[in-house]
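Good morning,

Attaching, inline, the C-alpha cells for the sequence recovery test we're adding to the shared suite. The designed sequence is right after.
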C-alpha cells in the first residue's frame, strides 16, 4: 500500500496512477540494468498494466500482495519512474 501512496503522490502532472505508470513505465524500464529487468520479469511485472494491477491489489487485498520479492521489483521500477519525473535538473 505504501508504494501506491508514493505513486499517488507523484501524479501531480498526470490524471492518476494509471496515467502516471502508462506514461513513464517504458522509459523507466530502459534505464534499468539487465539484472533489474530480469527481476521485474521474474516477478510478473512485464508492463505498465501489470504494475497498475499490483498497485491496485495491494490496496484492496493486502494478504494477497505480501510477496517480498515482488515488492522489491515494484520498488525498482517505481524508483526509476520517480527518478525520471522528480529528480532535480
Amino acid at each position: 500500500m505504501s508504494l501506491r501512496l508514493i505513486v499517488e503522490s507523484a501524479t501531480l502532472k498526470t490524471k492518476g496512477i494509471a496515467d502516471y505508470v502508462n506514461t513513464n513505465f517504458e522509459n523507466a524500464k530502459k534505464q534499468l540494468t539487465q539484472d533489474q529487468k530480469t527481476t521485474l520479469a521474474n516477478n510478473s511485472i512485464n508492463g505498465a498494466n501489470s504494475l497498475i494491477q499490483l498497485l491496485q491489489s495491494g490496496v484492496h487485498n493486502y494478504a494477497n500482495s505480501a510477496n517480498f520479492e515482488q515488492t522489491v521489483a515494484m520498488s525498482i521500477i517505481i524508483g526509476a519512474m520517480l527518478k525520471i519525473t522528480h529528480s532535480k535538473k
